[in-house]
Design a protein that fits this description.
There is one protein chain. The protein contains eight helices and seven strands, in the order αααβαβαββαβαββα. The radius of gyration is 17 Å and the shape is globular. The protein has a single domain, classed as 3-Layer(aba) Sandwich (Rossmann fold). α2 packs across α3 and α2 crosses α5. The protein has 229 residues and is of the alpha/beta class. It has a seven-stranded mixed β-sheet with strand order 3-2-1-4-5-7-6, with helices on both faces. β4, α6 and β5 form a beta-alpha-beta unit.
Length: 229
């Protein structure tokens, strides 16, 4: 692969590079792909490199169960599943049409360690307390992401939240929400996953204690009445 920061930085094997190419081919050829960035060169940067830049985080060192919230077209979940074949990935998506695409994408790329889950984060009872990492990319305000993620993590697990330009108000609300949910901010890393990328950040929160009873609140409440506001 030719994009800076994908193959040389993350050391993908030939088999993994082939899987990435299959994923890009499907993205370009599937009229129902739930993203506007489908041209291979652009998708390689904005989807693949942007997903794999998180591999440098300590959160993934021993992760074996990873949930991708609002997985959409499969980013960052599917590229990370390709890069971390020993981990199991749950691609959580509330849209049935998007879940169907996620299944096609995994089949096309030969990804056997990722599974689409048709459910809202607040209603995925099977995922409660079982995950080492929860991923979120362009999902919701950060306080909302933390409320979705915290109940799905085991104590010691991490939330990795992809963000653009920093927003002080959003971060203050997230800090307050984290304290309520048993989370603590542990890292804020600025990243440049591809040439021309700017204002991109990975926010990492660790679950330091059990999330209180009452979370997750019922579907829709986190957005309507976000914590920390």
């Amino acid at each position: 692969m030719s994009a800076p920061g994908v193959e040389p930085t993350y050391g993908l094997t030939p088999r993994q590079r082939e899987q990435i190419e299959k994923l890009l081919e499907l993205l370009a050829g599937d009229a129902l792909a739930p993203t506007t960035v489908v041209e291979p060169r652009a998708a390689r940067a904005r989807h693949i490199a942007d997903s794999l830049c998180a591999l440098s985080l300590d959160a993934f060192a021993h992760a074996r169960s990873i949930a991708d919230l609002g997985s959409g077209a499969g980013f960052p979940g599917i590229p990370l599943a390709i890069a971390l074949p020993e981990a199991s990935f749950w691609l959580l998506e509330s849209s049935r049409r998007k879940c169907e695409f996620l299944t096609r994408a995994c089949e096309a790329a030969g990804v056997t360690n990722a599974q689409a889950v048709w459910a809202r984060a607040e209603e995925w009872r099977e995922g409660l307390g079982r995950n080492d990492v929860v991923l979120a990319r362009a999902v919701a305000p950060q306080a909302v992401v933390l409320e979705y993620a915290a109940p799905l993590l085991r104590v010691g697990g991490s939330v990795v939240d992809w963000r653009g330009k920093r927003d002080a108000r959003d971060e203050r609300a997230a800090e307050a929400a984290a304290g309520t949910l048993g989370l603590r901010a542990v890292e804020l890393r600025e990243v440049t996953p591809f040439a021309g990328a700017s204002h991109r950040h990975l926010h990492v929160f660790r679950k330091v204690e059990e999330t209180p009873a009452g979370f997750p609140r019922r579907a829709g409440i986190a957005r309507k009445r976000p914590l920390g506001r």
